[in-house]
Every structure is written in structure tokens, then in C-alpha cells.
Task: inverse folding
């Protein structure tokens, strides 16, 4: 059995993911491309004696090296040399799609075109002569309908056939005479470097050099022929060459199209009609807000019974464990440590699955592009792209899905900033802490205090976004150049599969980190042997005393230090830990009374504490998610450190200035 | 402003894409942007010679949706201002 590697390329919004899912079914592996946060999906198929590995390349409009997606796609084809590249082409939008084809073909790899959404094109009265297209491009063209799984066998057969055919001529665009002359001179020079000639198609490399492509220039910088290349390049204007080549590619496409396509009369366009309403000057924003509110409601309301079910199940499990395991320490390890730790992950699962289902629905229908279109102006003002609105909104429910929702943002820097400021959006887990303290110390004004905390969170997010933009992640927000894809009805299968694979990945990856974190905290709270869980005599208590000088300027004592320490697992745990430490249980009233009786706790201290809880390290689940989404511990660590510093500073300021407003400390 | 492209048709003055009103058509005569933005625009079909139609502005006035090469593309006015066009007569 021979192995064949098939790389799936194509523009965004052409149904590539659907086709990939239809080809590989559930036999897919989801990971990240090394070094970048671009999702990498691979799948395996066995077909007529061939083990076919399908690699889903990121969706790109071109193969210049402007975005992480493009670099990943291009480097994979260049460096890993797949046996064949299958380009998924939207049959309803041939002109722009074929632009990418001209670039892939230049890379000198065998190419097969999957003419996808062929049914939609035909329904629109647009007939495409596949044989003619295939003959003109010298590339096999297969008709596919990804959502119904049509044409998959033909596509695989064509891919296998191309992979096994010895490489034939390169099907490339012929450029303007002066450009061709430059390419020929450059190829002549480059040929002298055998190493380069072996690694890259020289015509492709020469064309990229003419365009002033940074990535290509870097490839020849170390070569002995570099000075001669530079000498040749100094005579041309790369911008002019690039425009001439792009123009020529479109010319070639424009020459092909009339020969292969009989365009039907453009009838009533449903997408245009929907857009007239949803992007309307007056209706656009209300509709957007209503949809976002609906997303938020569904994510948390629909999930609530499932969350309750999981919580009840976990409680039963803990009780059963407590009753059946002999040594008390082991029962505590399993009950408080493992079940508690894993449980803190599991309770998020319903929210995450529902959120991803809605998000993939919004994305697959094409509405997400409209949402970005509508919100871009507002978000641009605070230094974020339009799409960053959705992660922020979802963050009010829970930062974990909020951070995961940032995946829809293309620009790497924009995405990082969106992820890093998300923890300041006050998630629902912080609310129990506010309710307890605001209720105990501010009485009737509690509502205002909680509201102001939410506003402070938003202000911290905006301020931090601006700060990051000017310091650690400098540069303009990436330009907004976005396709508005036609509205489409997604299939349930695709959305569910999408949701499932991402959800499972969350449980597996985040779960292991959280389990480890929860076990460490259990050990701190339980050792030395025989102490009461989390009490002053435990290691956690000792750590609280150790940390006390650090938080003393904020007016916090060792008990609060311990509670904040436990808050790392999840913010609501702060309440439970204080209950244990004050010996009042988790009952709100008893705890409020205990607070008021504590002379060390004033209204100003309570306010500082709430500010601290709002801003310091979100929770283990969020840290694990940041680690996973950014692909590095560096950013997760930065988030923790930055959050702690900001929380400490603002809590100090609030604690100092609050007495003058609320009277008496 | 100096004429940026000697190939520009004589009729109609050269202006920039952000100055084109809704439902108006124009032809691209030059791209002022450079670097990554230029590459991005070219890849998306904003090439000299292409016909562009302004479809609508977002509710807050920016960005603007255009129709080019048979599909819909939205750009901020800042980016559209880098594209030189000549309005087309009906």
C-alpha cells in the first residue's frame, strides 16, 4: 500500500472544511501548525490500495506571505512537497478563485481542481464546461458538492492519478515581455546555486523576488548568488512588477472564463435582499445586538440545565466517593482534588458546545462577516478589529469560550490582543463574589457597585488593548479587507462535527492542565497530614501568611490571601474558601455577618477586594485556554503577571481613594 | 495632485475609491498602497483595470462594501482611499 499526501487548498468561504469533513469523516486529527496558532487538520482515507493523508491547508486568497495563514499554506506546499494539491474552487465565483490557482500552479506541484458548490452555480443558471476548463488550464477539474458528498470518489481518483503521474510541464501564466525577460535573467543567476535549485522551483522564486516578497528575499539572502540577484533587482520597481503580474493573472483568467462559462441571467439575489435588511443604516445595529443577545442567552440559558445535571452528577459522585473510600485523606484527594478539579472543567462543557454550535452556524451562514462589517468602526476606535466584539461579549458569560471565539480573527496581533484583554471582561463566575461583598457592605447601593465593577472591567480591557498596541504588540490594527460571502444554509452535520472536534479538544487539553493545578492546590490545602482542609495550619494557610505582606498594603489579611490563592482554580471558589476560613460555611448570610464582625474588613477593603477579584488571574481554565489558543506558555504567563500587577495597583488605588467617597475606613 | 497613471482615460478625473458614492461604478487606474496592503488588495481583485461598484456603507459609515470581480468585498475608507479610480459614465 502506498501513501499519498493530498493538500487541500482554497479561498476562505468555498466549502473547503465541509469537503474535508465529507472526505475524512470523523477520522481527523486537529492540532496546530508548529509555531503559529493556525489550526492544522489532517485526516486519513484508504482508497483502492492507497493510504491517503489529507492535509487541510488554511484558507487563503493568495500565496503571498502577508499572513500566518498564507505562510503556512505556501511553506507546506514548498517545503513538504505534497504529492498533489487539491484546490477547492467556488463554482459561483470562478474569477477570484482561479487567481489562487495561478499561484499554486507556479509552485510546480500537481494540482486538481474540485469545482465545489457546482449545484449552486447550476441553480443560478450558470453552466461551466469542465472539460474545456481542464484543457485550458491543463489541470483536472472534478465536479463536487461538498454538503451532499457528491463527486468525492471522482475527486480522490483524480488526485491519486495526478500524484502518480510523473511531473509534467509547469502550467504557468506568461507575464509581460519585460517581466519575463527579468524572470529569465534571475533564473539564470539562481541556477548557479544548486541548493536553491533543488529546494525551490526557480521560476516561482524569481517571480516572488521581482515582487519584492520578503519571505523569498530571505531565502536567497544566504546564497552565494545573492549579490548578483540584488544587482538585478535594483533595476526594477517591485510594486510595478507585482501589479503587472497580478494584472496578467486576471487577464489569463478573463480570457479563460468566456470560453468555459455561460452565465445565466442574474435573477433575484437572496443574499442582496437579506443584506439590505441586516446591514441597513437603522436596522443593522439593532439586529446585530439582538442576535448577540440571543447567542449569549442560548449559550448560558440552554446550557444551564445540562450544567446543573453535571453538577448534580459530580456532587453524587463525590458523596459516593466520600462514603466508600476508607482513609479520609484518599476520599478528600478523590473528592475535593480530582472530582472537584475535573468537575471545574466539565461544567463548562455544555456552554462551550452550544457556543461553538451557534458560532459555527453564524460563521457558516455568512452572518459573522456582516457582524464584523457593522462593528468594525466602533472596535477600530479602541484598537481592535470588528470581529473582536463577539469574544468580548461572550466573555461576560465565561472567558473560556470568549477566548476561543477569538479564533475567527485573522490578524495574529489582533487576535492576541483580543485574547489577552478578555480576562478583564467580568465573567459570571465573579458575580457570586461581588454579590457577597457588595451585599454585605453596600446594602442598597450594591447594584451600583456591581455595575461599576463591570464598567471597570470594560475600561481595563480597552485601556490594556491600547497599551498592548503601543508596547508589546505594536503596529496598526490590520487592514480590514474582508469578503462578504453570499448567505448559505449550513448543514447540521458540518456544524456538529466542527463543534464536536473543538469541544473534545478543549476537554482533553484544558482538562489535563486543570487537573494538575487542582491537585497542587489540594495538596497545599491538605498537608501536613491531619490538618483541616484549607485551614490556617495547612500549607495553604502558611502560604497565606507568607503572602500577607504582599497584600497587606491593599488591606487584605492572610485569610483573603488564601481565598485569592484558591480563586486561581475558579473565581467562585473564593466564596467557598472564605466560608471555610471564617468557619461560616457557604451560607451567604452567616458569612456576611462574619465579615461585618471582622474589624479588619472595611467597606473600602471590600471594594478593593472586589476590584482585585475582577482583574487578577481569571482562573485555571482560562489560563489553560490562553496557553492553548496562543500556543505558548509565554502569553499565558504574561496574562497572569499582567493581571496580578493591574489588580494590585487598581485595588490599592481604589482602597485608598474609596474612604473619601464612602466615608470612614 | 499629479496624474498618477498615464494610461488613465481622458474622460473623467482621477479620484479615489472612498469618494465614490453608493450605487456608482468606477474603474481602477492605480493602487497607491505598498507592501502587505498592496498585495492583499491585488489578491482580492483590486487590480488596475478592474470595474468596481460601491454597494453600501456600514451603519456607522465605515467600512464600505464594494462589488469587484463578481463578488462582494468590504474595505475601510482609509484603505479605499489608496485606490485610484475613474468614475464610469452610464
Result:
Amino acid at each position: 500500500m502506498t501513501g499519498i499526501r493530498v493538500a487541500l487548498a482554497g479561498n476562505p468561504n468555498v466549502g473547503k472544511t465541509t469537503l474535508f469533513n465529507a472526505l475524512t469523516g470523523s477520522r481527523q486529527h486537529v492540532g496546530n501548525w508548529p509555531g503559529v496558532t493556525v489550526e492544522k487538520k489532517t485526516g486519513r482515507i484508504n482508497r483502492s490500495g492507497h493510504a491517503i493523508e489529507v492535509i487541510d491547508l488554511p484558507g487563503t486568497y493568495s500565496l503571498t506571505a502577508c499572513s500566518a495563514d498564507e505562510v503556512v499554506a505556501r511553506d507546506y506546499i514548498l517545503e513538504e512537497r505534497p504529492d498533489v494539491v487539491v484546490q477547492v474552487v467556488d463554482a459561483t465565483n470562478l474569477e477570484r478563485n482561479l487567481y489562487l490557482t495561478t499561484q499554486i500552479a507556479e509552485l510546480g506541484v500537481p494540482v486538481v481542481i474540485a469545482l465545489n458548490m457546482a449545484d449552486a452555480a447550476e441553480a443560478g443558471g450558470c453552466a461551466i464546461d469542465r472539460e474545456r476548463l481542464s484543457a485550458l488550464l491543463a489541470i483536472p477539474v472534478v465536479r463536487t458538492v461538498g454538503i451532499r458528498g457528491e463527486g468525492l470518489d471522482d475527486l480522490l481518483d483524480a488526485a491519486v492519478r495526478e500524484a502518480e503521474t510523473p511531473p509534467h510541464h509547469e502550467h504557468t501564466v506568461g507575464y509581460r515581455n519585460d517581466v519575463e525577460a527579468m524572470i529569465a535573467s534571475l533564473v539564470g543567476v539562481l541556477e548557479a546555486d544548486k541548493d536553491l535549485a533543488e529546494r525551490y522551483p526557480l521560476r516561482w522564486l524569481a517571480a516572488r523576488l521581482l515582487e519584492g516578497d520578503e519571505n523569498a528575499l530571505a531565502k536567497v539572502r544566504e546564497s552565494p548568488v545573492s549579490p548578483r540577484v540584488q544587482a538585478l533587482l535594483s533595476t526594477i520597481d517591485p510594486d510595478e512588477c507585482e501589479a503587472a503580474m497580478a494584472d496578467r493573472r486576471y487577464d489569463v483568467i478573463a480570457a479563460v472564463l468566456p470560453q468555459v462559462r455561460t452565465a445565466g441571467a442574474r435573477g433575484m439575489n437572496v443574499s442582496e435582499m437579506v443584506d439590505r435588511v441586516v446591514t441597513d443604516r437603522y436596522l443593522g445595529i439593532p439586529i446585530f445586538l439582538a442576535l448577540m443577545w440571543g447567542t449569549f442567552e442560548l449559550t448560558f440559558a440552554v446550557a444551564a440545565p445540562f450544567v446543573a445535571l453535571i453538577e448534580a452528577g459530580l456532587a453524587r459522585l463525590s458523596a459516593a466517593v466520600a462514603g466508600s473510600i476508607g482513609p479520609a485523606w484518599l476520599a478528600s484527594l478523590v473528592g475535593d482534588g480530582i472530582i472537584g478539579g475535573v468537575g471545574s472543567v466539565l461544567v463548562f462543557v455544555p456552554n462551550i458546545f452550544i457556543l461553538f454550535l451557534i458560532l459555527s452556524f453564524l460563521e457558516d451562514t455568512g452572518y459573522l462577516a456582516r457582524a464584523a462589517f457593522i462593528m468594525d468602526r466602533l472596535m477600530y476606535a479602541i484598537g481592535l478589529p470588528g470581529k473582536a466584539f463577539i469574544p468580548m461579549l461572550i466573555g461576560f458569560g465565561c472567558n473560556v469560550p470568549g477566548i476561543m471565539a477569538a479564533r475567527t480573527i485573522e490578524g495574529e496581533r489582533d487576535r492576541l490582543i483580543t485574547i489577552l484583554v478578555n480576562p478583564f471582561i467580568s465573567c459570571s463566575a465573579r458575580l457570586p463574589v461581588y454579590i457577597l461583598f457588595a451585599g454585605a457592605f453596600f446594602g442598597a447601593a450594591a447594584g451600583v457597585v456591581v455595575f461599576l465593577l463591570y464598567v471597570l472591567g470594560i475600561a481595563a480591557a480597552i485601556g490594556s488593548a491600547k497599551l498592548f498596541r503601543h508596547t508589546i504588540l505594536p503596529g496598526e490594527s490590520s487592514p480590514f479587507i474582508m469578503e462578504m460571502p453570499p448567505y448559505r444554509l449550513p448543514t447540521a452535520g458540518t456544524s456538529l462535527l466542527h463543534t464536536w472536534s473543538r469541544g473534545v479538544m478543549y476537554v482533553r487539553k484544558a482538562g489535563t492542565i486543570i487537573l494538575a493545578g487542582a491537585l497542587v492546590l489540594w495538596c497545599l490545602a491538605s498537608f501536613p497530614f491531619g490538618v483541616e482542609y484549607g485551614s490556617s495550619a495547612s500549607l495553604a494557610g502558611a502560604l497565606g501568611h507568607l503572602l500577607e505582606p504582599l497584600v497587606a498594603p491593599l488591606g487584605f489579611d492572610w485569610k483573603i490571601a488564601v481565598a485569592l490563592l484558591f480563586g486561581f482554580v475558579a473565581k467562585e471558589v473564593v466564596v467557598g474558601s472564605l466560608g471555610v476560613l471564617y468557619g461560616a460555611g457557604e451560607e451567604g448570610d452567616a458569612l456576611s455577618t462574619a465579615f461585618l464582625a471582622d474589624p479588619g474588613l472595611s467597606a473600602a477593603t471590600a471594594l478593593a477586594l472586589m476590584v482585585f477579584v475582577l482583574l487578577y488571574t481569571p482562573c485555571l481554565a482560562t489560563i489553560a485556554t490562553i496557553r492553548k489558543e496562543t500556543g505558548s506558555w509565554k502569553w499565558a504567563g504574561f496574562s497572569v503577571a499582567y493581571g496580578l500587577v493591574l489588580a494590585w495597583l487598581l485595588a490599592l488605588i481604589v482602597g485608598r481613594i474609596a474612604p473619601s467617597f464612602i466615608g470612614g475606613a | 495632485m499629479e496624474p498618477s497613471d498615464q494610461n488613465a482615460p481622458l474622460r473623467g478625473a482621477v479620484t479615489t475609491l472612498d469618494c465614490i458614492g453608493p450605487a456608482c461604478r468606477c474603474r481602477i487606474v492605480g493602487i497607491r498602497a505598498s507592501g502587505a496592503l498592496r498585495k492583499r488588495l491585488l489578491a482580492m481583485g483590486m487590480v488596475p483595470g478592474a470595474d468596481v461598484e460601491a454597494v453600501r456603507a456600514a451603519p456607522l459609515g465605515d467600512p464600505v462594501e464594494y462589488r469587484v470581480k463578481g463578488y462582494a468585498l468590504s474595505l475601510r475608507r482609509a484603505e479605499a482611499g489608496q485606490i485610484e479610480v475613474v468614475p464610469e459614465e452610464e
